[in-house]
Design brief:
7 strands; 3-stranded mixed β-sheet; 4-stranded mixed β-sheet; Glyas_Bleomycin-R_OHBP_Dase; 2,3-Dihydroxybiphenyl 1,2-Dioxygenase, domain 1; Glyoxalase-like domain-containing protein
Length: about 120
C-alpha cells in the first residue's frame, strides 16, 4: 500500500545553487548527502508537509537513470498569503511573475535550473 508521503524528484544543473534558492524562499532543507560523488538533498515547503522534494544533479541521473532525465514535473504550490510569498520569491529571482487574479490568485517562478513552478492563493 502507498504511504501518506509523496516524493517528487527534481533533476537540476547546480544542486548547491538550488539549495540556496529554495532555502531563501522558505523551504526546509534536510537530509543532505553525497551520492556517488554528487551532492543531493531533500526539502519540504513546510516542516509538517507530507510532500518531500529530492534534488539530484542531472549528471548523477545521467549515470543511474538516463531515461528519466528530461522528465520535468508541473508543480502547483498553495499559499494562504500569496502576496507576501510573491514578494519574497521576487526578491530572490527575477523570474517571478506578477500576481494574477484569473482564474484564481496565482504567480509562477523558475528555480536556478529553469524549471517553472506555480503558486495558487487559497
Amino acid at each position: 500500500m502507498f504511504t501518506e508521503t509523496i516524493g517528487i524528484m527534481l533533476y537540476v544543473d547546480d544542486v548547491l545553487a538550488e539549495k540556496d534558492f529554495w532555502s531563501a524562499i522558505g523551504f526546509t532543507i534536510q537530509n543532505e548527502q553525497d551520492m556517488m560523488g554528487f551532492p543531493s538533498f531533500e526539502m519540504k515547503s513546510h516542516p509538517e508537509s507530507n510532500t518531500v522534494f529530492t534534488v539530484y544533479a542531472k549528471d548523477f541521473i545521467k549515470q543511474v537513470s538516463p531515461e528519466v532525465l528530461n522528465n520535468v514535473p508541473s508543480v502547483l504550490f498553495e499559499s494562504n498569503d500569496i502576496e507576501a510569498l510573491q514578494a519574497k520569491v521576487a526578491a530572490v529571482t527575477d523570474t517571478a511573475s506578477l500576481l494574477q487574479e484569473q482564474p484564481f490568485p496565482n504567480f509562477n517562478f523558475a528555480c536556478p535550473s529553469g524549471i517553472y513552478f506555480a503558486v495558487k492563493g487559497i
